[in-house]
Specification:
471 residues, alpha+beta, four-stranded parallel sheet, 20% strand, globular
Length: 471
Amino acid sequence: MDSSVTSRYVTESANPDGGLRTLTTRAEIPAVYGTSYGHLLLPRPVFVSEQEIGAFADDLAAIFRVLVSLPGRCFGGDLHRYGAAIGLPPELIEVMTEGATGDPLLYARADAFHDGARFRLLELNVGSELGGVDIAQLNRAFLDVPAFRAFAEANGLDHTDTMAHLVAGLRGAAGGVADADPVHPVVALIEGPGALGDHDGVFLSIQEDMRGHGIELLLGEIQELAEGADGKLALHGRPVDVVLRYFAAGQIAGDPVARAALTRLNRAHAAGRTALFTPLEGALFTSKAALGLLHRPEVRATLTEAEQDLVDRVLPHTWVLSGESGGGDSDSDSSGDTGDASYAEALAHARAHRTSLVLKPGIGYSADGVVIGRDVTEEQWQEALERTAVRDYVAQELVVPALEQVVDPQSGRTEGWVANWGVFVTPQGYGGAFCRALRPQDGAVITYANPGTRGTCVFTHPAARPEESRI
């Protein structure tokens, strides 16, 4: 990574009177965003060249296209067989495949490390239930601080507004809905049953940011959606043009009321009465085990040389650990149902290479269930591997990230932080980014459940400083 902008920022932050060291306290952060995140801010933003992160977003889009092609390439087009191969239980597959078209929308956020040479993809979260879409509020607040604005102008800094990408997607979805205003559609953010209050600060911040983009956002839960005589759905009496989905398949499966509500929503979507952004079909490709399939020999054999190079460049080697995983289409010459053999081989590799691997649930949030091999004993590692017999897991090659240098506002000391990059990709390409960061001494798993985790926004810069590019 080009660290010249970061170096200049750190150097200028060493001056206690320059304004950069105390950026987060000088910035006037929007009220709702500040309530949710103001106490969790990293002392500075992070920087990356626009060319590098744009190229990474292009790679993410290409990875997405490969993932979406796997059911047709390797499983005879059968989404249920594909779902079983990545360890999804039948009840989740049923929910995810209802109304599936085989062509899910590209709207995703990667979690990635930068190892000092390039970005490495840890997981790809496909679908609209993504955190961080309101991060540009922080970019704008920082740019309103004179000292930072001067630094940004001197270094050609820019940022991409993720909310603008989301709003464009919502307006595009509204364009196919009868009687909807395509510029000012009625949009409802819908959570699963009983879950809206669990993240109310996050949703209120999204609502605040979206209002600034000209869209009123309603908040509700899926069982509250009512169907009118014309097939259009309403929330609390308000007809809804577009549902912004924040519920997950696991919140629907096993709940008859929620399941019936999803069927009503899918029916309204198919009829063009209320659009669903985005259908649950995308969840079939968000499992970490889906990425693991790309390293299975029988699946890799179906990839072109360019696709194999893409996987090798972007994705750390990932092994699927699930005794139920099938290898592919038994009718294809290039793949066969080798799940048991592949599972045994992957498990044997994981048992022998603890210190170079990370164990992760195939489906999971906030680093739940993640075990970093080098941070546990051999006995603890073997116990963790035993859980793969009853729950889908992957073992992934450990990526050692480069540290982000940050000046502590109080002490003036420069410390290294590990940054987990959240990089959005949409049909328009790179859709913005944010970072969550943690000092190595505060742990190894970067999640807000860890009290040492801090978050910040991302600014891009040209490959060379503006004045250097004219030489």
